[in-house]
Amino acid sequence: MPGPRPLPRSARGFTLIEMLAAVGIAGVLSSIAWPSFQGSLQKARRSEAMLAMAQVQIAQERWYASRGRYASLGDLRQPERTPAGHYGLQLSAADEQGYTLLAVAAGAQAGDRACRRLQLVVAGGATLRRSGADERLDNDEAANRRCWNL
Length: 150
Known about the structure:
single chain; alpha+beta; Glycoprotein, Type 4 Pilin; 4-stranded antiparallel sheet; 4 strands; 19% strand
């Protein structure tokens, strides 16, 4: 009785070297794609902050139209966090002249270094948008436009 017949080359499968090469190529490609994916994800989360800030701005203008001054987040019944919780909202200097609204990145979004803080200042009918990594909000014009998706 003859022994088992050897399988043809096409039916044997992959060698260990071939598998390691495939895993290595996949690793290199994913390490190239990951930063791009992270950047897109951070940009989407910034959009969430801008939407929340726009909602506060609309509520402020309604409040101002009926009362002649701007209000706090509590008066406006606006939350202190964005819906997904990626930004905390702080409202300050709300009076007859204007207000300052600050969105501060939290959790995973805090890794968005250059755009960690977004500030909207409404004063005397003018709107100013600033951004930065810390309290200084010192991004240059190009970085500020990128943070605000302008």
